[in-house]
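Deliverable D4.2, example record:
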Amino acid sequence: IRTNNLIFPTCMDLNIRIKRMIEDEDAGLKEISRLIRTDPVISAKLLVLANSPVVNLSGRQVHDLQTAVTMLGLNTLRFMTQVISFQQFTKDCRTPELKRMANDLWLYSTNVACWAYAVGKTFRWLNTEAVLFTTIMSSAGTYLLINYLDKFPNVRDAKECLNSLVEHHGQDITVRVLEAFGLPSKIVSVASKEMDIKYMYPI
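Output generated by the structure prediction step:
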């Protein structure tokens, strides 16, 4: 933390690259699609989403990733790639207890995000897409801590260890993660508040 040298899991690292490319005015949909295609899981799930009735009102089958990216739009794409990567992260944990904890965190985060989105819809001036993305990203630091713990399968009480790490380092790590993603200062400031960190993991 002191050196700001955090090592991200592959899924998080790819999402940082995707986000940066989306925000790059010189990058087109073709380049973005090519980068996403390097992850077969994200690519497959985006295609499924693009062919869902919610997105694909015409019912015409979408077979290529670039068309799927075009249909979804960049805001939805940014959010969904993050959601998919976090979901995939829960499956990649080797330690059974940490896998369960990562899955619990996933369910908790998505539930809070859905409620935040629903409540946000009642305020016309509020950017609900930003609310949804911010809520999901507030758990990024805890995912990173779980990833670190997963490298030490001999830890006796993983839950107690995680809770201790979140309590003492969760705030700093979350801020560093959000800064690494290049998120706006307003989003980072939300994660920097002590009261928010306590809800990063349902202790």
